[in-house]
Specification:
Layout: H1 2-11, H2 24-35, E1 42-45, H3 52-64, E2 72-76, H4 83-94, E3 105-110, H5 117-129, E4 134-140, H6 148-152, E5 155-158, H7 164-178, E6 181-182, H8 184-194, H9 198-209, E7 214-215, H10 217-223, H11 229-240, H12 244-257, H13 262-273, H14 280-298, H15 303-318
Parallel strand pairs: 1-4, 1-5, 2-3, 3-4, 6-7
């Protein structure tokens, strides 16, 4: 499915600036820079699936037209993250002159926050030495992992999570072109699971479309690796009522029957806490406890034991302790 997903993602990738949704302020600034034919080094920072790589590709195609492939180098820093990649591939490409009227080439470093510190130091010097023949566009999820000297050499654009209206717009475009039937509840389910990641939405739509052209909320839920909100609500209500054993049995049933990972269960619990009919102060305390348990699981603790500990906290909270 991964190979086919790449086809769909490429098929519905925006081709022009005006097709990019949810980043209007950034688009206006980038258009003005591109029209000048003299873009600075740029850093695109933000969550996955919000249009960073797409915007970089649009900029390059606007700059070079049919010659964009000869003047563009894309590297995924999470695959090639050492200092050798900067010393060899990047420098070799940067030191050669561009084709066409644009006086520089463009190197796009995707997931630049995965570069080692040594590689970033080498990149900093490369950005200085080859400014006349090359511009860099860096993409990352966490700008805090990019060295300050590199950030100071770039114009930083911070991408935001896509809102529901942006996701809905893209879903309707795909549904129309692929002759899919999608109701508002399904769109809501897609948005809730994607958390603003448009790429994930497209992949889910493709998987669902391979099963049926009529995409329902139930079909999406079968493809999502998350527990159903109704099941999690039952687990929490058992715990808050003081019935720890039933809560534990229901939780194990959800994890085993639906094959849901502990980290996904934690996320579902965190969302469902705010739908419970309990005091807001108690909701805050339980949310804090949920975050603590999630941290322990990420650090390598046994997920079954940690989730049972979380249920015990809900039982204690239900008893006012």
């Amino acid at each position: 499915m991964e190979e086919n997903s790449n086809i769909w993602t490429e098929k519905y990738r925006p081709k022009k600036f005006e097709e990019v949704v949810g980043q209007e302020d950034i688009i206006k600034k980038v258009i003005n820079l591109t029209k000048s034919l003299n873009i600075p080094h740029m850093l695109f920072a933000g969550p996955a699936g919000t249009g960073k790589s797409t915007l970089a590709l649009i900029v390059v195609k606007e700059l070079y037209g049919i010659h964009w492939k000869e003047n563009y180098l894309e590297l995924n820093a999470s695959d090639e993250r050492g200092i050798d990649i900067v010393r060899q591939k990047v420098k070799d490409f940067a030191r050669t002159k561009p084709l066409g009227n644009t006086p520089f080439k463009v190197i796009f470093l995707d997931e630049a926050d995965a570069l080692t510190r040594e590689a970033q130091q080498a990149l900093r010097r490369t950005m200085e030495n080859f400014t006349s023949t090359c511009r860099f566009i860096l993409s990352c999820n966490y700008s805090s992992k990019i060295l300050d000297p590199i950030q100071s050499r770039c114009v930083v654009f911070r991408f935001k999570m896509l809102e529901k209206k942006d996701i809905e717009k893209r879903i309707k475009i795909i549904a129309e072109r692929e002759n899919l039937q999608i109701d508002p509840k399904t769109i809501e389910a897609l948005y809730e699971d994607s958390e603003g990641d448009c790429r994930r939405v497209i992949n889910l739509l493709q998987a669902a479309a391979s099963i049926s052209p009529t995409i329902s909320e139930e079909l999406i839920n079968t493809l999502i690796s998350a527990a159903k909100p109704g099941d999690i609500k039952i687990v929490l209500e058992y715990a808050l009522s003081g019935d720890f054993l039933k809560a534990k049995e229901k939780l194990l049933e959800v994890m085993l029957k639906e094959s849901v990972a502990g980290t996904d269960i934690i996320k579902s619990i965190q969302k469902e806490i705010w739908n419970l009919q309990i005091d807001n102060e108690l909701k805050v305390k339980l949310t804090e406890k949920t975050g603590e348990i999630e941290f322990r699981m990420v650090e390598g603790s046994d997920e079954f034991i940690q989730l049972q500990a979380l249920l015990a906290s809900f039982v204690m909270a239900g008893r006012g302790m």
